[in-house]
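Final report, closing paragraph on structural work. Over the funding period we assembled a curated collection of sequence-structure pairs, and we close with a single example.
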Amino acid sequence: MLAIRSVPTLCVFCCIAVTVVHASADTPVKKAALVRTESASANLDEPEAVAKDRARLLFEKGANAYRDRHFYDAVDIFLETNRLYPDPKLSFNVGRAFEGLGNQPGALRYYREYLRRMPDAPDRKEVTSHVEQLELSLSQKGLQQLTVISTPEGATLKLDGQAVGITPWTGESFAGRHRVLLEAAQYQSSERVIDIDLHRAQDFTFELSPTPKPAPTRLPAPLQDEPKIGVLTLSTLASGLALLGTALVAQAASGDSRGASRSAAFFAGGGAGVSLLGGVMLYFDLNPTAKAKASSSGVSPDGAGLEHSR
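Its predicted structure, as stored:
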C-alpha cells in the first residue's frame, strides 16, 4: 500500500502514515497519525535553523491538509516544503496528493520524480508497479508522459516548434516522433528527434555545450608607403657626381701628372662629401622604418630637426 512518506531530514520532529486512497471519490480517507519525537537537531546557524523549523511546520500543515482531503492545499504546501528543505519523499507525497485529486498525470509525474531522486528507495518495487498502472491508464488515451532534463537547467524547451516550458519539464504528448529544441543563453542550442513510447513514460536528457568564445579580432597591419626616392636626395647625389666629374676635368686641365692639383682635390673632396650625404639620404628613402625611427629621435636624414650648438 502506498502511503504518505515521512521526511526524516526535516521531520525528526514528526512522521505521518496515511492509508491508500481508493480510486472511488466516495471512499473516506482514514485519519493520519502524527507522531512527535524529541528534536535531535545539530548545532545549526540561525538561517538554516529557521528554514528547518518553518519546513517542519509546513510539513505538518500539509499532512493535515491531506488528512482532511484538502488535496490542492496539500500539493502547494508539500512543494513549498520541498523548496525550503528538499527531500525526495516530498515528491512522493505530492504524487499522493495529486492522486487524491484524481489527477493521474500529476501523480505519475511526481512518483517518477521520487524514483529519480531516490533510486535506492526501499519501496521502489511497489512504487514502480503503481507507476506502470498510471502509464497504462494514460496510454489508453493515446498519450504518454515525457520528461526533458538538461544540463544546465533552465533552458527553453520547444516541442515540435512550440515553446512549452523550461527544463526540467514534464508533460504529455502523443506517441511517435517529435522534434525537441533546447535554447539557453550562452549555450549552443540542441535539437534532436525523440520517439515517445505509448506504453511507458520516458526521460530525455540533453547536455548543452557553451557557446565558443569569439576569436580575438586582429587589427590589420598599418599600410606602409612604398619606398620613394625624394627629389632632394636625387639632387644631392647629382651634385656629388657633378663635383666628382668637375674634379676629373680640373685634373685633366692642369696637366700635372705628378699628383692631383689643388682645384681637382677641392672638387673631389666636395664631391665625395656631397655623394656620401646623398647615399645616406638614399638609404633612409628606401627604408621607411629607419626613417621613422630617425624622425622619432629628432634626427632627420635631410638635416631637419638637428640642434646646433654655438
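The beta strands are 14-17, 33-36, 143-151, 156-159, 162-166, 169-174, 176-183, 190-196, 202-207. Residues 9-44, 305-310 have pLDDT under 50 and may be disordered. We thank the funder for supporting this effort.
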